[in-house]
Specification:
The complex is a heterodimer of chains A (329) and B (303). With 329 residues, chain A is mainly alpha-helical. Helix content of chain A is 76%, strand content 0%. Chain A is globular, with a radius of gyration of 24 Å. Chain A starts with a helix and ends in a 7-residue tail after the last helix. With 303 residues, chain B is an all-alpha fold. In chain B, 70% of the residues lie in helices and 0% in strands. Chain B has helices at 9-16, 21-26, 33-55, 86-122, 124-139, 142-153, 157-184, 187-194, 199-235, 247-254, 262-289. The termini of chain B are far apart. The chains are: A mainly alpha (329), B mainly alpha (303). Chains A and B meet through helix 1, helix 7, helix 8, helix 12 and helix 13 of A and helix 5, helix 6, helix 9, helix 10 and helix 11 of B.
Chain lengths: 329, 303
């Protein structure tokens, strides 16, 4: 737990150093040409965002505020970073969670199937499909799908999380689909799902490629085990063997990869969100990074770093559930 | 020890060595059609990258054609909003992205392997330090960290490579450390130490040849990722600057002229084919070189 906390402090430190020790000037990046030439405006800006203090002073102030849950004020949106992220995180989680759930389902089916058909045509086809899925530039695929489904065929809604004629459902979780259901607004729910469809599809394709390959390998290793052979030998139906023996045995390595895949998903959202104008942390990170908005970038780093650590913690805990031999100390 | 005084067993051990690299590539699954397809496409793209000034029918930067012309006889892939030939730009994009992706992978391998080898070989505080840094970088999502670095350094292709380097070396450091850690206690290294050979010489002469294979496999699978990362950064406007014909920024330009589908389609297909080809190749290489993934041909359980 202590190392995790140190890691998070490290994340803030890295972002802090990166955004300070490099040639880019946050003042020029956020004020624009005219204002940046006026020394008085620059001085006021520096004072307002605490940029007139020494670097160590700035960093310690940031850490001190962090302990109070204050992530500072964004120099891009001029709002509290914590509030900005409060809106952006659920938006990203909505795509990321949908994509990871779908990917795990499809990847398990594909991977198990490919392993059972090793060396046959279907195995090779799935191998090509999953490698292709890993190779598609997400930003391009997003544009292509958007062009066909929205612009040409009008079967998908436009960008964003909801169509203009729908109101945002009352905020409970921040996930529009869940909130709409909780509020009993079925049409809002359907609209939110329709908006989710394309971004989730793009992200799923990549992760399915990743998971299929790994699950295939994991299942192949288990298929070689004696206990699987024994299960077959005592006449258990193939379905039972797959579900109760093979997949359970393969679940540990698969779980590790799912944790890693979730990390790469959060990364992939940056490009996908920018295509679909999805107001999530990816878009926010992009805005913040391109304006060298130090508090914004550090906030994103913290949130994503925390998510990564939490997901890995969850994975570690699930090891114990899936494999009774693993006992967490 | 002279040649003549070698024990008789020496020749036996030599013949028991694993087959050489070329042999392993030729045997096994290397003959898999996917690897060959990948290799052919990779070679084709490398040729395009090297010869693009000769192959491109027009100057990729010249703005002398009618604007936003659909693909046809005048321009094979159409023209863009400034009247430039998209086909020539796609070809010349190969000479921008592919060498940079290769450079990125080479740099990542060098930085990662050196730090990883030091980490595994010297252990103690060196190991602690390097591994904590890799933890830190890996806790960050790659694109976001690369984006921050690229934005901080200023948009340029070379800075995009530096930014991508920051996120891509830890994988090599981890891999190399693990391999070196295993070799450090092996007899040939210990006997080298007892003979008084310096640590650096041991690392370079005795350990390095034993870790090259797995690193090569990871690197070959990483070239595709490098192309995706660099073109992604350019797509976000954090890589190539405007007149440069770079695939990612060409796709990004297409957003402004949505009706002209050819602007984005072709550079995207270029990225896709390059990355698929490198991934096919890398996958076949892994099958051929990674002893763990070797399959028993003709056998194995088929349930």
């Amino acid at each position: 737990m202590l190392t995790s906390l140190l890691l998070l402090v490290g994340v803030t430190l890295v972002t802090f150093i990166l955004t300070n020790l490099v040639p880019g000037d946050p003042v020029a990046a956020s004020l624009g040409q005219r204002a940046a030439e006026d020394p008085e405006i620059v001085a006021r800006f520096r004072r307002e965002y605490g940029l007139d203090k020494s670097l160590v002073g700035q960093y310690l102030t940031y850490l001190g505020n962090l302990l109070h849950g204050d992530l500072g004020t964004s120099t891009t949106t001029h709002r509290a970073v914590a509030a900005d992220l409060g809106g952006a995180v659920p938006a990203t989680m909505e795509i990321a969670i949908s994509a990871i759930v779908l990917s795990v389902l499809i990847g398990t089916v594909f991977g198990t199937f490919a392993a059972h058909r090793r060396g046959r045509v279907s195995d090779h086809v799935l191998r090509v499909v999953s490698l292709a899925g890993l190779s598609v530039p997400t930003f391009w695929l997003a544009l292509v799908l958007y062009y066909f489904a929205y612009y040409k065929l009008h079967i998908a809604p436009g960008s964003g999380r909801l169509s203009v004629d729908f109101n945002v459902p009352p905020k409970i979780t921040g996930l529009y689909t869940v909130d709409a259901l909780l509020a009993g607004q079925l049409d809002t729910f359907l609209d939110a799902v329709a908006h989710l469809f394309l971004p989730v599809l793009v992200l799923t394709l990549y992760t399915v490629g990743l998971l299929t390959r790994f699950i295939r390998t994991a299942v192949l290793e288990v298929l070689d085990q004696d206990y699987v052979r024994a299960a077959h030998a005592k006449g258990l139906p193939a379905r039972t063997v797959v579900w109760n023996y093979v997949l359970r045995g393969a679940s540990i390595p698969v779980l590790t990869v799912v944790g890693l895949a979730f990390g790469s998903l959060l990364s992939g959202t940056v490009l996908v969100e920018s295509v679909f104008s999805w107001p999530g942390i990816g878009s926010y990170a992009y805005e913040a990074a391109s304006h060298l908005d130090l508090p914004g970038v550090m906030g994103v780093g913290l949130v994503v770093g925390t998510t990564y650590l939490l997901v890995n913690l969850l994975v570690d805990l699930l090891y114990g559930v899936l494999d009774p031999r693993v006992r967490l100390s | 020890m002279t040649r003549a005084s070698r024990p008789a067993g020496a020749t036996v051990t030599a013949s028991l060595r694993r087959p050489g690299l070329v042999r392993r590539l030729r045997g096994g699954r290397w003959s898999a059609p996917l690897g060959i397809v990948g290799a052919v496409v990779v070679v084709a793209w490398l040729l395009v990258a090297a010869l693009s000034p000769l192959l491109a029918p027009r100057d990729p930067l010249a703005q002398d054609l009618p604007r936003l012309q659909a693909p046809g006889s005048g321009a094979l892939f159409g023209t863009d909003a400034l009247g430039r030939d998209v086909f020539s730009r796609v070809l010349s994009g190969a000479s921008v992205t592919i060498p940079l992706a290769l450079l990125l992978v080479v740099l990542s391998v060098v930085v990662g392997a050196v730090l990883g080898a030091m980490s595994g070989f010297f252990g103690r505080w060196v190991d602690e330090l390097v591994m904590r840094i890799t933890d830190l970088v890996m806790a960050f999502p790659t694109v976001i960290l690369a984006m921050v670095v690229a934005a901080a350094l200023g948009a340029s292709l070379f800075n995009a490579v530096l930014a991508a380097l920051v996120v891509s070396w830890p994988a090599y450091a981890r891999l190399t450390r693990g391999l070196v850690l295993g070799l450090r206690t092996s007899n040939f290294v210990i006997s080298g130490q007892l003979l008084g050979i310096s640590s650096w010489r041991l690392l370079a002469r005795d350990i390095a040849p034993n870790v090259v294979g797995p690193i090569l496999v990871l690197a070959s699978l990483d070239i595709g990722t490098a192309v995706l990362l660099l073109s992604g950064l350019s797509f976000l406007g954090l890589g190539a600057k405007p007149p440069t014909a770079e695939w990612g920024s060409m796709v990004s330009d297409a957003v402004a002229n949505f009706d002209s589908w050819w602007l984005g389609l072709f550079p995207g297909l270029a990225i896709l084919t390059v990355v698929v080809a490198f991934n096919f190749l890398g996958d076949a290489l892994r099958d051929a070189l990674d002893p763990r993934s070797v399959t028993v041909r003709g056998g194995g359980p088929t349930l």
